Amino acid sequence: MEASAQKITVATTVNAPVAKVWEQFNAPEHITQWCAASEDWHAPFAENDLRPGGKFTTTMAAKDGSFSFDFGGIYSNIVAEKAIAYDMADGRSVQITFEDHGGNTTVIEVFDAEQSNPVEMQRDGWQAILDNFKKHVENN
User: 11, 25, 124, 132: most buried by Cβ count inside 10 Å?
Assistant: First the structure.
C-alpha cells in the first residue's frame, strides 16, 4: 500500500474496565458475537493468535448465506490492554488503542482506507462494528 493512504478513524467509549474490554475484543468466543456491521450479518468463525507475528481470521457472513468473506491480518505490535497494530492481507495497516479512563475504556481504531469504496462507507462500516462491540461488552 502506498504511504500516502488516507487514514480513517473510528472510536467508541465502552462503559467497562479496560481488562474486560481487552478480553472481549480479542477472545474468539466474543468476536463471533459482536463482529458484524448490521443485524443481517454475523461472524460464524473467529481465530486469534494475539502476539507479534500472530495471525487472526474472522469470517463475516450474510445471515441469509448469500455472501461471506474472511477478514484477517498479521499482528505487528501488541501492548496488553493498551495497543494493537496489524497489517491486513492487502498491505493496509490498522492501529487500535485502548484508553483506560478508570471504569470506562475508549477504543480508537485508525486504519488505511482502501480504494474500492467511498471513505464514508468504510468509516460507517467500521464504526457500526465498533458500536456492536460496545453493546456486546456492556450487556455481558
Answer: 25
